Amino acid sequence: MKTLLERIIADCKHYTSQGHVATYIPELANVSPDKLGIYVSMNNGNEYSAGDCESSFTMQSVVKPLILLLALMDSGIDAVRDLVGVEATGKPFDAFNYSDQALTGAHINPMINTGAIALCTLIHGTSYHDRFSRLMELTRKLADNQNLDVDYSVYQSEKMTGNKNRALAYMLTAYGMITDPVEEILDCYFKACSISVNCKDLANIAHIFANHGIHPITGERQFPAEYAKYVNATLATCGMYDGSGEFALTVGFPAKSGVGGGIMAVIPHKMGIGVFAPALDKHGNSVAGVQALAMLSHELELSIY
Amino acid sequence: MKTLLERIIADCKHYTSQGHVATYIPELANVSPDKLGIYVSMNNGNEYSAGDCESSFTMQSVVKPLILLLALMDSGIDAVRDLVGVEATGKPFDAFNYSDQALTGAHINPMINTGAIALCTLIHGTSYHDRFSRLMELTRKLADNQNLDVDYSVYQSEKMTGNKNRALAYMLTAYGMITDPVEEILDCYFKACSISVNCKDLANIAHIFANHGIHPITGERQFPAEYAKYVNATLATCGMYDGSGEFALTVGFPAKSGVGGGIMAVIPHKMGIGVFAPALDKHGNSVAGVQALAMLSHELELSIY
Amino acid sequence: MKTLLERIIADCKHYTSQGHVATYIPELANVSPDKLGIYVSMNNGNEYSAGDCESSFTMQSVVKPLILLLALMDSGIDAVRDLVGVEATGKPFDAFNYSDQALTGAHINPMINTGAIALCTLIHGTSYHDRFSRLMELTRKLADNQNLDVDYSVYQSEKMTGNKNRALAYMLTAYGMITDPVEEILDCYFKACSISVNCKDLANIAHIFANHGIHPITGERQFPAEYAKYVNATLATCGMYDGSGEFALTVGFPAKSGVGGGIMAVIPHKMGIGVFAPALDKHGNSVAGVQALAMLSHELELSIY
Amino acid sequence: MKTLLERIIADCKHYTSQGHVATYIPELANVSPDKLGIYVSMNNGNEYSAGDCESSFTMQSVVKPLILLLALMDSGIDAVRDLVGVEATGKPFDAFNYSDQALTGAHINPMINTGAIALCTLIHGTSYHDRFSRLMELTRKLADNQNLDVDYSVYQSEKMTGNKNRALAYMLTAYGMITDPVEEILDCYFKACSISVNCKDLANIAHIFANHGIHPITGERQFPAEYAKYVNATLATCGMYDGSGEFALTVGFPAKSGVGGGIMAVIPHKMGIGVFAPALDKHGNSVAGVQALAMLSHELELSIY
């Protein structure tokens, strides 16, 4: 397995020269584009890694499944489902998606910005500072890493430049879908996107989704199985932006990418995987990361379809 | 003429029971829907009126031609044209109109909210307080009424509930079309929409647009003729929201309506007209106001087509 | 006047090198792009011309106002208005414009393909051959030119390549807006687009619209005044494709362009104008033709706004 | 298992009174809406059924995976992928989906009408009659039922009323995506939609997709495993129209529904399922059929996520 991962890293390395790192804030633009790392946490407790798996990067959209999970844990399936739909939108992650002047939950889903921002309001807490702290704690717990924290310079930049997210949040407000102060909600969202992780952290988190909420090693249930299925199914249909259909065909398991270059992949009953390679394709997915997952899926027959 | 106007008021009065007054803020919802007034300022100096022409109401979108005019006066045609297009959008006045994630001036025009908000940034002033003061002064001057002022309770309500406009303004920011602080720009815009006027004020303003910038009585030029044509042409194609084409057919001259129930109509070389009737059709145009203008146009053959 | 027109042709000649002739069929692609002609028919009976005003070209979309007129004459305003709306769509002339799977008259207008195709069904006749003959006769009569005829090679090419129009017509059928056989309706429409005219023909037709249905020389009424206003108002808001707003600002009177390079312009109460220059801008409007009309409008103060 | 299926039929029977049978052609409208049947073909060769599993119905969109499969078998993955994309469109199955006047493969997928029509052109054959015969043969072979045939009265009705599909096909032609005669392609497509099957037929076909192309009983390979994965992944992301995301959450395996009331479901490595209940929800999916699959998925833990 270790050998396989190293071969995959070697074979996919040249894909790091394809695509482009995100440039909308300097912190992302300055990442060296040739990194590629992978980490696999198997349900039997074995762990394998190769390449730049120690490099840290910000979660960005990879945090969306965790926002969805905590909203489910705090407010339950009905409240989540009422607020935010589950259909693929056929549009980019930051698109204004609405028709005939009506914006409803049916137009959005938890894996696009509008949906994730709305779901922050279903996380419990006395303040948005508090809500974010609970999300941070959950992330640390699932990643088995108490040292996880926000990259504050990324967070500051996100906050400064995040006007499209402000527009989306005020649109949610205008249609009565959220009522809390926009800047407070966005502060929570921007911090969440700025949590710094590495491949191992993502693999560990994915690991528990793969095992339907039970920690594979300790056997401790972290959250109900039906929440894991909710998240995994959502990742399978919408996790890779506008490339979700292609990813289902060529790789074939639930996964979530972020513009920081990370991908968290869930192979139900089998393993969690974290990959990192910062150069992105036009959809915002890591080019080399997708290729590495495709190769791994092919070699180990991991497609669920 | 006086007799004609009174007959029009009598004949069109029953239309005030059609349509609905705007309800998004209490100040607009509480207006009595059966009012109907009309005021005509002719180029030869004669003035005629009938019905509830003393009732005051807030300008709302009727202020858009004045924002456009002041932007033209302060920044010139090229700057205005570069920032905000002139084509009808085929969508409601507060629609998010953009394609393929690109928002450009070609997607908006000065008679929809996005365009009017953007044009506030082309009004000169040391602050947005100052810019609004200059717009207020211009409005008073053109209306020949130094007593005009903001209806502060409407303004407060607009500001409190104006989240869709916030969304539109942050979208403009996200695409680099405006750079000033959103809340300051919107404060100017909300105040402008809340200027309280009556039919005479609108007729007087329209009067000068009809006379291509020259005050018909004093002979004093208020602004260049080409700015009048710019505004009048824009009103003709986009002034009555999604009912602009219908209005061109059935009435046939440039006009601008607002959800406060006012309509300002410009008959080039002939007269300015102000009408007021607060019940609106589905496009946001005053039902009885449009009917009164249609009847007047028919009787006096005012169509420019 | 003659001198003015010759100066305009000279000054605008260089615009013929901007833009591109239509290329979707060989007959249009083979036109020499440097032609520029203008013809003016004034209400007092005077006629002036300059440049390539004898060159013939196919009407293409310039025939749309005539289809609208004949539909009005045969079926009346209510039937026309019920079938086809009047608002600008904010989309290209051959766009699929519908929302939420519902296509209604509100989504289309007489100056876009879908609307013009639908209006062919409101022209009377025992067959579509007969309907077209009546349209041909009307065109000859208004143009004062019994020699007008279809350019059959253009017609054959249009018919062969017109699959987007077939798609639009079947969409109209699917939504119950038309019920006659699609190929028969399209045969009438393709023939209409292929009528061959020159600048004088267009000026003569426009002339009568300018005079609200009465032939300016003979004094004979050709059609009711209200139909002229219906057509002229529609031209003012939608006649120049997605450039109608811009044209209203910079030129300022009703006009209809076609991809054959012709423009027919109506200056109410004053004159009709025909221009021809085959190189088109991105909206499908003749570049040099628009410039010539802008210059003429400026020199003679022809803007109606 | 037999007992479980009977309990599911009993428990879900009341859902047949929800939703509405398709009414666009009389043959579909006349179906009795209270039918409910289910058939399960397991990989170990066992078969179980309950309810109205002998009732026949037309495949309608359930034939789309077979059109996709035969296009893959005849023309290969690259040709299929080049012509027709794989992303969910976020729009109804018969929507016009295109942007900025450009229609490309990226706008469509094999599970919407436009995509399926296009894929008919990648099936081999000397004529479209021949192409359909080959599709018919494949369907019979996979269903293990040589008696399968077209319901000719449904086919005639589809052909008569299928103007929206004609519009979609001419749009594909206009954008150069298909070049064969539209009526011939559509004849093949309408016949394919009109193939009459029962629950057992669907279960048998699904069975082979579940076993990645190998007949579970005979062990004979019918098509390459990668084609099965291509089809199954496409069903998982787009198989249930605009309800695909919801279906992934609540049921959790690849499936394809049709407006005839049938659903074919694939549980990889385990079983194929056919259900039938003609009353449809707003997306066009069988209400009781989806509920029956949800209950079965829950009882047997069949979700792949």
Structural overview:
Four copies of one chain form a homotetramer. Chain A has 305 residues and is of the alpha+beta class. Chain A contains twelve helices and eight strands. Chain A has a five-stranded antiparallel β-sheet with strand order 2-1-8-7-6. A three-stranded antiparallel β-sheet of chain A has the order 3-5-4. In chain A, helix 4 crosses helix 7, helix 4 crosses helix 8 and helix 7 packs across helix 8. Chain A is globular, with a radius of gyration of 18 Å. The two termini of chain A are 23 Å apart. The model of chain A has no long low-confidence stretch (mean pLDDT 94).
Biggest sheet architecture of chain A: 5 strands, antiparallel
Spans of chain A of 5+ residues with little confidence (pLDDT < 50)?
none
**Percent helix of chain A:** 40-55%
Order of helices and strands of chain A: HHEEEHHHEHHHEHHHEEEH
SS strand fraction of chain A: 5-15%
* Overall average residue pLDDT of chain A: 94
Lateral arrangement of strands in the main beta sheet of chain A: 2-1-8-7-6
Radius of gyration of chain A, rounded?
18 Å
Termini distance of chain A? 23 Å
State the total count of DSSP E strands of chain A.
8
Strand-pairing-aware structural class of chain A: alpha+beta
Greatest contact between two chains: A-D, 30 and 30 residues
**Number of helical segments of chain A?**
12
Shape of chain A: globular
Task: Name the quaternary structure.
Answer: homotetramer
